[in-house]
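Hi V.,

You were right to ask for the full record rather than a summary. Here it is.
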Amino acid sequence: MGTVHPAAVRERVVLLDDAGAPIGTADKSEVHHADTPLHLAFSCHVVDGGGRVLVTRRALTKRTWPGVWTNAFCGHPAPDEQLPDAVARRAQDELGIAVAGVTVALPDFRYRAVDDSGVVENEVCPVFVATTADEPAPNPDEVMAHRWVDVEDLATALASTPWAFSPWLVLQAQQLPLLVEATPAQVAR
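Predicted structure:
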C-alpha cells in the first residue's frame, strides 16, 4: 500500500446514498478501504489540438491501482464545489495544465471495482471531456508517466488488453462516444 499524500489527509469527499444523493462528507484518506462507501468523484479525458487523447500512468504511491494506465485524470469534488470547477482544479494540481471546453459526456457513470490489494473504489463518477493546448507537467505524487495517443490506438488497446488499464477507463470506453466511435469493428465484436 502506498503512502498517503499530505494534501489527501485534508481533502474531503462527498458521501452518497444508493440513489446518489449527498448524505455527508468524510476525509479522503479514510474513505478508500475494503468497504469503501459510495461517494462522488469524476473522471476527465483530455484531447489536444491534433485530436489525440492523453493517458496517464498512476504513480506507484497511489493507494488504488498504482502504476496502472488510465484516462488523463480523476478526482473528487470538495463539498459545495461545482464539478467543472473541480475538474479545472484537478487538471492543474495533477497535470499542471489548464483545460477548456469542459463538457460532461457521461453524467450518470457509476462503478465499483476492487484493486488487487483489496481496496475498493465505489463511485458515482460523471465523466468529462476537455481540451488543452498545454503540455502536461505532472505532479510525480500523482502521475509517473503520460502519453498523447491516437484515439483509435487507445480504443484498440483497451479492447485487446483491458487488464493493463484502470477498470473505470475500460468501463467508460464502452460508453464514451470519443472512444466508442474510434473502436474498429473487428475489435468491438
